[in-house]
Amino acid sequence: MRIxxxxxxxxxxxxxSTLAGLDAVDSLVVxxxxxxxxxxxxxxxxxxxVDSPEAxxxxxxxxxxIAAATxxxxxxxxxxxxxxxxxxxxxxxxxxxxESLDVLRAVADSGVEVQIxxxxxxxxxxxxxxKAVVSGELGPLHTVRSTTLDPAPPPAAYIAVSGGIFxxxxxxxxxxxxxxxxxxxxxxxxxxxxxxAEFIAAAGDVDTASAVLTLDDGTLxxxxxxxxxxxxxxxxxxxxGMKDSIAVGLEDRLxxxxxxxxxxxxxxxxxxxxxxxxADAYRAELTAFTEVVAGRSASPCTVADAVExxxxxxxxxxxxxxxxxxxxEDVRKG
Length: 334
What we know:
Layout: E1 2-6, H1 10-20, E2 27-31, H2 35-45, E3 48-49, H3 53-57, E4 63-66, H4 73-82, E5 87-90, H5 97-107, E6 114-117, H6 124-135, E7 141-149, H7 156-161, H8 165-181, E8 185-193, H9 198-202, E9 208-215, E10 220-226, E11 234-241, E12 245-248, H10 274-277, H11 279-293, H12 303-322, E13 326-327, H13 328-332
Parallel strand pairs: 1-2, 1-4, 2-3, 4-5, 5-6, 7-10
Antiparallel strand pairs: 7-11, 8-9, 8-13, 9-10, 11-12
């Protein structure tokens, strides 16, 4: 199959490398507003570089991967859907939840599959955790903990347009909690603070945040995030049930140092970057997309899924601003 890639920044180039190594992919067509980026990718991966999204759509691609700037996501998704071409788009669907809802309505009855890039759904540990929940081996859950701790903040220019830590970072935790538990969030309470980079506070954002989510069966999910985790990139998920407890990310490259006497775990070099931590998950995610393109499976992460995670982010953002619990149904009502 022939896959088109729109956007060749850090994640777009990474996806190009991954797709070029998949047996199901015969060729790539690439484009980027920076012509040199497209030319470089074409040279590295044996791809065909074109000068616009329109030229890419006209090149006869079987599927499209969108890794462009967030503001371009809605129009590119809709262009792919109008062309009848299955599309993979990095999260988020759009800059705001309102724009995401517009996309959801536009694609709802199109018959074209749209997959949104929430890569943790393809992480081996998260997949195993979901199976443990579905099988009932944990018993009824009472507590879930999801953690995303970045080793350093993104650049100031990125923070200024990110929409805030809940929309940009925590949204991965929100999605994986929904997916692994199979439950919906009914209420949130969020808090945050600033102890690091001054440009984050200047942008009206926080660099460290926590949220308690109440799920529709009464389970509590605790979300922890920071932009300043000097030891490394720490992503974990814990599920505690009436019968058993399990953890994702509890391995030798975990960026934690034990001070218990005689304990040498974890002993490996800590993860320092999300592409390092989730390289296998990204490959599995794009492999799944090739199955979507081939017509052998439906989208494993739909626009509707992404919108649900966005609603949770909106509720947490409001909770942080107003220092109060916020129910999801109230946010949906506007």
